[in-house]
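Methods, example record. To illustrate the input and output format used throughout this study, we show the complete record for Probable protein kinase UbiB. The sequence lines were provided to the predictor; the line carrying structure tokens was produced by it.
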Amino acid sequence: MRLFRLARIVFVSLRFGLDRVVLDVDASGRLARVWKFFFFWRRFSQPRGVRLRRALESLGPIFVKFGQMLSTRRDLLPPDVADELALLQDRVPPFPAEQAVAVLEAFYGQPVDEVFRRFAREPVASASVAQVHFAELPDGTEVAIKILRPGIERVISHDIALLETAAMLLEKLWAEGRRLKPREVVAEFSKHLNDELDLMREAANCSQLRRNFADSRLLLVPEVYWDWCGREVMVMERMHGVPISQNDALLAQGTDLSALSRAGVEIFFTQVFRDGFFHADMHPGNILVHRDGRYIALDFGIMGTLNEEDKNYLAQNFLAFFKRDYRRVALAHIEAGWVPAKTRVEDFEAAIRTVCEPIFDKPLKDISFGKTLLRLFQTARRFEMGVQPQLVLLQKTLLNIEGLGRQLDPDLDLWKTAKPFLERWMGEQLGVRGFVQSLQTEAPNWATTLPQLPRLVHAALVEHERQRRGRGDELERLVAAQRRQGRWLALIGVALAALLALELYTRFG
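The corresponding predicted structure is encoded as:
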């Protein structure tokens, strides 16, 4: 099975000239000259990016998904190749309804028509990992059922193993391959793909996002019906809306496209900076628009997370960027350790200014985030900045937002839309409100720590007394240290008591 699959991959690669895509990068090498001598008869009229896209489409859905992921790594790929891979669509024929019914009956242990009041045999959506059917729960609630493709885990494990082998050979046989970090890329792809194979994980992602946006005026997220969910089956609320790609239908239902585009920006920044948990697969196929103008999110297999350090770093960079304070941007990179400490700030500042300055005061239709990100990555490589894996999904999401923004409102001023939100968020994090929120977060710990202070002080005094007896020649020094520590502990106790009083006043006063 694996040998047959490998043979097919080699055949498709030669058919579309993927070997030339690799060798053309290092055309002066000996291997390239020998290879071209033996395959001189081949001629390709299509650009390399088109050939690579067509080859991945021929190899099947797993390779299509790999190409989609690669399209987000503009730090590694030439722009023409990345742009072409971004056009890949996960168009996969549905698997037979009989197989879907078999999966459900094996999971529930009873006939599907006894589990659901109604189950539509015809799927409404089909992708490489799963497909979706509409149904009704026994009480009449309309639901969407996501069903994992039968045997997909075996197919994925085979293809991942082949990709890992190809990545290893690429690194060992091609000097430029090491810079592209193929094994790291395959490992990243494998992780996200395996996450998508567990529909309970996706259901948990959906539930978390729904909780984050409860009662939101901007975003609707379907409810998960946990009693019907498992690793291979996910049952959620059926959502009704117009696909965001259908502008005419949106206008017909009275949707304000300009307001919709601004709401999309706010949703993105809310997910990233408020929650540190964001939908990382926001292509048009995963977004509907409700008749009241709210976004409807679908498909939660790929989600991104950021910690507090990442959020603060990004917010400082965005705000400095909006203010054209390129020195602050350069310093933030150095302080975060993303650029070597030896980097000369003035040089890094000048390089960032060169990339960013041309895109200000322009509407979205005149800006390409893809090209801007590429130039930023090239600048970062020149200053030895490493790739930050936790931000790769964020970059992908930014590119998705660019595409949606161009479609909905090409005149959208992204900077003016985003800046007030970021300034408000930073004020909440660093101002009085942020301080009070931190106190409220830490208050439960104080209830445990404060009663222990006398015991901790006593233990410290006993320990110093023991040391004093063992080292009489250091008596005076230890006594002085003991007194200093006692004063510090007293000050700490007073400060904690004051904070506790403030917390009690905040909650009950």
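Annotations derived from this record:
Residues 241-430 form one domain.
The first helix runs from residue 2 to 15.
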